Amino acid sequence: METDRRARPLPASPTSKEHTNMEAVLSPVEPGRRHVAQAPAAITAVNLTRRFGEGDTSVHALRGVSLGVASGQLTAVMGPSGSGKSTLMHILAGLDRPSGGSVEIAGTEITTLGDKQLTRLRREHIGFIFQFFNLLPMLTAEENVLLPMELAGVKPDPAWVKELTAKVGLSERLSHRPSELSGGQQQRVAVARALLSRPTVMFADEPTGNLDSTTSAEILELLRDAVSSFGQTTVMVTHDAHAAAIADRILFLADGRIVKDLGPSNAGQILVAMEEVSAL
Ligand code: ADP
Ligand code: MG
């Protein structure tokens, strides 16, 4: 599978671009080096913790995560199962609340918002793509795409709806229900649904986890294209080194902490990093 679609300079040494998460937030960028920290942050998270349950049986899913999600970039999040990837995404997207720490989305601190304000902020600023598509079975593809904006009481620009559904390759399938669509087509519907409001950040949690490799490559191409052609800030959790190879930045979580932070890397470099992280 050909996933490394853009020409990128290789790092001088494999470790030269690693830095700690606080440096990513705080340090000035070295001149002349292309790095995601140059872009302004769409989301800034500081010292996030998340504990599930109380007492002896409680689980520390996040143990102090700080990061800035750069605007107009694709950030991949990798790490072993149970390392806290989904928990981090849900908190960054305002779907879950942290036990401690802060999250700012488009300049608004979300951890202190009430439920109604949070829902409104999510509708305006967040798109989410799930592993199992999460389409409503009784709605057509087009109705699924339009639903979030309908709930928000916003009328989408018909020209944009047309452009977007064509871009994701759904023009001929708009009146089909999810049960009449393949997995790849259902995920295309989910991608269009997430992109329709031009969200500040689009999140994708294992978006290719339920697709074969050819279909995965097509969906990854769509995600990359959204970033490259209209600057869609995107955060994607993935297990797949080929998927992470389309990213501008790759964060590795282990046991609730960011343990590695790479710039653009090829699948081979990512596999090496994954092995290092699982050995921690
Ligand atoms: P990942 O997405 O990296 O596989 P998760 O963020 O789903 O990891 O989970 C991190 C840890 O938190 C795991 O130990 C998981 O069992 C635990 N966890 C996640 N969600 C809940 C929950 N709702 N209740 C209790 N424990 C949870
Ligand atoms: Mg997960």
Question: How would you explain this protein's 3D organization?
Answer:
Helix 6 (183-195) runs parallel beside helix 7. The radius of gyration is 18 Å and the shape is globular. Helices cover 33% and strands 22% of the residues. The model is unreliable at 1-37 (pLDDT under 50). The chain has a six-stranded mixed beta sheet, with helices on both faces. Strands 2-1-4-5 form a four-stranded antiparallel beta sheet. It has 280 residues and is α/β, with parallel strands linked by helices. The chain has a domain at 72-84 and 114-278: Rossmann fold. Bound molecules: adenosine-5'-diphosphate and magnesium ion.
Portion of residues in helices? 25-40%
In CATH terms, the superfamily of the domain at 72-84 and 114-278 is P-loop containing nucleotide triphosphate hydrolases
Count the beta strands: 10
Distance between the termini: 29 Å
CATH class of the domain at 72-84 and 114-278: Alpha Beta
Q: Look at the helices and sheets and give the structural class.
A: alpha/beta
Number of helices: 9
Mean pLDDT: 87
How large is the share of residues in beta strands?
Answer: 15-25%
Helix-strand topology string: HEEEHEEHEHHHEHEHEEH
CATH architecture of the domain at 72-84 and 114-278: 3-Layer(aba) Sandwich
By CATH, the topology of the domain at 72-84 and 114-278 is: Rossmann fold
